[in-house]
Amino acid sequence: MSLANLYLHRRQERRVQRGHPWVFSNEVAIDRSPLTAFEPGDCVNVLSHSGKPLGTAYVNPHSLICARMLSAEPDCVLDDAMLASRISEALVLRETLGWLPFCRLVYGESDRLPGLVVDAYGDVLVAQIGTAGMERMRDGIVAALLELCRPSAVVLRNDLASRKLEGLDTYIEVAHGHCPEAVSVRENETEFEIAPLAGQKTGWYYDQRCNRALVAERSHGRSVLDCFSYVGGFGIQAARAGAASVLCLDASQSALECAARNASLNGVEGTVELRRGDAFDALRALRDEGRRFDVVVVDPPAFIRRRKDRRSGLEAYRRLNRRAMQVLADDGLMLSASCSFHLSPEEHQAMIAGAADDVGRWIQILTRGHQAADHPVHPGLPESEYLKALLIRVVRG
Length: 397
Hints:
The chain is an alpha/beta fold. It has three domains: 68 residues, Archaeosine Trna-guanine Transglycosylase, Chain: A, domain 4, CATH 2.30.130.10; 100 residues, Transcription Regulator spoIIAA, CATH 3.30.750.80; 200 residues, Rossmann fold (3-Layer(aba) Sandwich), CATH 3.40.50. It contains ten helices and 19 strands. The strands form four sheets. It has a seven-stranded mixed sheet, with helices on both faces. Strands 1-3-4-5-2 form a five-stranded mixed sheet, with no helix packed on it. The protein has a five-stranded mixed sheet with strand order 6-7-8-9-10. Helix 9 links the parallel strand 16 and strand 17. Helix 2 packs across helix 4. The relative contact order is 0.09. The mean pLDDT is 97.
């Protein structure tokens, strides 16, 4: 049985032909294929204006991204069999990396499962469903994870703000088993305790794995400042690698309490200092106190979530990096990261150079970091490559 057709306007097929997996509502020829004729999650054949098949997608007539491509082949259906097959393929990569059972298991479009993210914390899996099409397959997702991974618990952290754009409610639910308030994560030979039900995102940020290892390698015998430390991912790994001292700075009291437990868990509580406060204000206070650090990590949340945030976001990044350099010892190292897709690598580098110029510092780029390999990049979806990190040497100008 053939699926219904979704026709695009003339000359709107080029992006999909180049591999981009999204179709926007203004690209659809609604006179030939009205979006109102579909229910959220329906699978359709996507065709060019001339009728050339472009592949299969699932649709959401209520969303700006009204169709997400599933296959270059026609008449494919997102069903339990496809879910199981593609989750199994995603597991193969993570097995090859050797990071199981502590890694991102599924990364949306990059694993041909648009709208689905799954993180593994030992035998506890935390999934986020971001689209109506995947929400429709919720039970199948849980069943596939149970069959393939045999977890003790599956948590649905469906509290993403973006779900509202898909017409979905937000909720957090333990879909299988029992999930404790705290679970263990092992990364780069360091143990952490995280809160999958109450922490940020799914509880941890696996994308910074390799950048944390890079900082740890450079921290032996040095003083380290971990800005936006959350539960201590950078700082505690640096302390465990032999840092002379570590200051974890975060605005969240609960995150710092967890960081304290993580420091104790790794036997570095005597090395790690905790400080609560807004990073901008705290960096200024540290500067005024005359504090200087040999290594500074700046890993803020996304300041540019939408294109219209670019101007204010760029200024926030520059101001933050400027203040970080003001507490950096001469000939110090700084890792500056950004998870804003709308900030390009070139703009990120230029922003850091501008911040250095503002405070009379000269910089050298030592290493370019990016998201870890369990967050693979979809070659047709630039949005899947979002994390930028520069390790720089900073000296007086």
